[in-house]
Amino acid sequence: MPDDDSHQKQLEKEVWKCLDSVHHLLKRREILLQTLRQGWMELTSARYAMGPARISSPLFSLKPHAPSSVVDVRGLPSDSTGGNSAVEVENEPDGITVVFDLVRDRAENDPKTSVTKTSDFTGSDRGQPPSHLRRRVTSTISNDDEKKDQWEIESLLNDCGTEFGDESSLAEAPKETTQPLYWFGALVSPHLRSAQNSFSQALDLIVELVNAQNEATHAHSNVLKFQKATSVDEN
Amino acid sequence: MAAAQATSRSSSLIAIIGDEDTVTGFLLAGVGNVDLRRKTNYLVVDNKTTVKAIEDAFKDFTNREDVAIVLISQYIANMIRYQIDSYNKPLPAILEIPSKDHPYDATQDSILSRVKHMFTAETTIRT
């Protein structure tokens, strides 16, 4: 039966694809583990050199800032396996494969970049200034500084529209990126810089790993699809 | 084509749920984001962090439209395993990573266990 043979061949092809993608996934995981271990080791060395209190979570900056490493997501049509088009891909009814790309330093190049959603400003915040402006108004500083603050508040209000109802323009205000190394002091241990490099490499591997994971899932679902088609043919 | 465009996003965040060292490392790599409400895209888990806090953070990150990938240490994922196993959306993608004090256990990886099960079942049927 030609259909049985073609399904069987497709099944074998998909099984090999699945095994290759799982092998690729396992290799990436192993490299990620080694890179993370290197990063942890460097971080521990930096903590030993600088003191435990100088590298800890309370030092993380909570000033609004944008990330320097972001991810672009692309939805690609799933590649045609050349098999029976009537058989739908399991778990991907739209036939879309999601691919992730790591982008670095986009916020520095694009002044309009912002990841703040307009929904961050709820209805209860309408008509009230955001918290950072509120702090400026109530701070106890000299007259000149007060006048400067007032001017800045007024110019922001003018830029933002009448009330704070123009939330989209507030949300699109460019946020600065920050150099995380500076959170831990002006002079940091070289081990901390090495840790930063290691974790940057780990970030690249993580994006590759996510893509490999999606590929393996897709290959696995294709194998199940053709297994089902083959068992139906045998019956 | 419309569906492919619908899944396209740019400048999406990577959220992290991990121990202090893991989160510190990835923040050094530049994935940290803090918005005007001081809402962050990371959660540092220590021995005082409750399971409910982890569940809430996971739910929050997976419901945010600006998050593309959620990294979670495997030992923390084990605390909310039922929640992770029941998660089936393509975005954001969930990736379990090893942690400093807990080596990665491949038997708990969802993809590997499914593939292993598939080949075990197939071998049994053929014999």
Automatic annotation (TrEMBL), chain A:
Residues 112-122 have a biased composition (Polar residues). It comes from the Eukaryota. Residues 107-146 are annotated as: Disordered. PANTHER family: COILED-COIL DOMAIN-CONTAINING PROTEIN 115. This is Vacuolar ATPase assembly protein VMA22. It comes from Riccia fluitans.
From TrEMBL, chain B:
The keyword Metal-binding does not apply. Keywords: Hydrogen ion transport, Ion transport, Transport. GO terms for biological process: proton transmembrane transport. InterPro entries: ATPase_V1-cplx_f_g_su, ATPase_V1-cplx_fsu_euk, ATPase_V1_fsu_sf. It holds the Pfam family ATP-synt_F. Belongs to the V-ATPase F subunit family. Subunit of the V1 complex of vacuolar(H+)-ATPase (V-ATPase), a multisubunit enzyme composed of a peripheral complex (V1) that hydrolyzes ATP and a membrane integral complex (V0) that translocates protons. V-ATPase is responsible for acidifying and maintaining the pH of intracellular compartments. V-ATPase is a heteromultimeric enzyme made up of two complexes: the ATP-hydrolytic V1 complex and the proton translocation V0 complex. This is V-type proton ATPase subunit F. It comes from Riccia fluitans.
